[in-house]
Amino acid sequence: MSEVALSEYEIERNKPMPSFNHSIVQANLIIQIGSRYKNNYRVASELSLDLSDWPSVPDISIYPKKSLDLRNDIIAMTEPPLCVIEIISPSQTLNELIAKANDYFRHGVRSCWIVLLPLGNIYVFTSPDDYEIYRATETLRDPVLDISIPLKEVFE
């Protein structure tokens, strides 16, 4: 069996290259959360995290609202986000993302969403063992962030 060479993107971020659907759903989530809750949260795309020497780059990170300091950028956040969102890529397995969610919780993240593109579902984990499943026609509710978003706006 031949191995597929990883791209520079995949090596640098230690994650698969996003697909078209992945990219669109990621942008839609950022728009929905960012526009509805801009007074409460900062929504970041592909932000490098270094949580207790565990590097990761979630698809989306959500932090409490904080001012931008354009003169002093942060290369890798050491403070855990309130929430991370991981969107499954065609080359990933659900087991990989569940293991990653467990790692996020171990490092102080309080909410983790796993987006299953082929099913149009989002799993909202509030701990490694507690989650709710939301379908593309439903309104997602995250009790940790105290937010809700209609998923038809995300999966269109």
Written account of the structure:
The structure is a single chain. With 156 residues, the chain is an alpha+beta fold. The chain has a single domain (9-153), classed as tt1808, chain A (Alpha-Beta Complex), CATH 3.90.1570. Helix content is 23%, strand content 31%. The protein has three helices and ten strands, in the order H-H-E-E-E-E-E-H-E-E-E-E-E. It has helices at residues 8-13, 20-36, 94-106, and strands at residues 41-45, 49-51, 54-56, 60-64, 83-87, 111-116, 121-127, 130-135, 139-142, 147-150. The strands form three sheets. A six-stranded mixed beta sheet has the order 1-4-5-6-7-8, with helices on both faces. The longest helix is centred in the N-terminal third of the chain and has 17 residues, at 20-36. The chain is globular and about 40 Å long. The chain starts with 7 loop residues before the first helix and ends in a 6-residue tail after the last strand. The mean pLDDT is 91.
CATH-assigned fold name:
tt1808, chain A
Secondary-structure element string: HHEEEEEHEEEEE
Say how many strands there are: 10
Kindly report how far apart the N and C termini lie: 37 Å
CATH architecture type:
Alpha-Beta Complex
Please tell me the total number of domains.
Answer: 1
- Label the structural class: alpha+beta
Number of alpha- plus pi-helical segments: 3
Strand-residue proportion? 25-35%
What is the overall pLDDT average?
91
Give the low-confidence spans.
none
Oligomer: single chain
